[in-house]
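Quick log. Single chain, no ligands specified.
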Amino acid sequence: MNLGGIGVWSFHFVQDPLPAVRAAVERIEELGYTAVWYPETPVTREAVLEAALLLEWTRSLAVCSGIAGIWNRDAAAALNAARGLNDAFGGRFVLGLGVSHRPSVETRGHAYEKPLSAMRAYLDAMDGLAAHLEVERPPRLLAALAPRMLELAAERAAGAHTYFVSVEHTAVARERLGPQRTLAVELAVVRETEAARAREIARTHTVRYLALPNYRNNLLRLGFREDELDEGGSDSTVDRIVSWGHEDAILGRVREHLDAGADHVCIQPLGDTWVADVERLAPVLLQR
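-> predicted structure:
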């Protein structure tokens, strides 16, 4: 799997009016980014629909679900959707699968139990159907943070997609995945050079994720303290998760993730000026 160096990750792809999304994704491709990533939640557009739209509006971008939840469609639907999209669009769709989070899963009426076992069973069902149909299974990545999910990604997928992580986690993930698997890392960014304002914007992002056990526990495993994770995170925590400042500072953090073992970094500009930020960052990030 070759995603290229730098992609763009955004909630805007699945929340904004479709004409605005089309204009944004066409501009992102024109600028030279190599992939776009989008989430799936109970209040966003459905992941397969979103992929079809983004693929139709672009010519060369990899379009990646980051992630499609395994409780949102059964394994047969996921397999056949990925097969159809890749047949129609020249193999540009990357199926990112994840166990999501308890609140989202329970909102859909499911029980969030034994997520690692649930993912393993889901992959078994996908692979069993592919074998029965005698078809090649499309490429997939697993949303993975904890060691055992990273190991499952190494065993059963093309690699892993990590989200809300520090550079230290990227090094851990590379070690767990081994050298042959793809590691695609999300990096939230803020183009603001004044520290207090940059961290204020960043905390609108970190406060949401530090309330979710999967992300909080992942940082605790890396050595963060509990008191560093409260109220949107300490300054140090915010600075390790979100890259802020001028273009060269953000480039520096991207390079740190690549040096730590990432194959691909997808930036997530925070705030309403995200398309302008993508444009301003392109000359620096894409000619690194």
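Residues 6-193+244-285 form a domain with the TIM Barrel fold (CATH 3.20.20.30).
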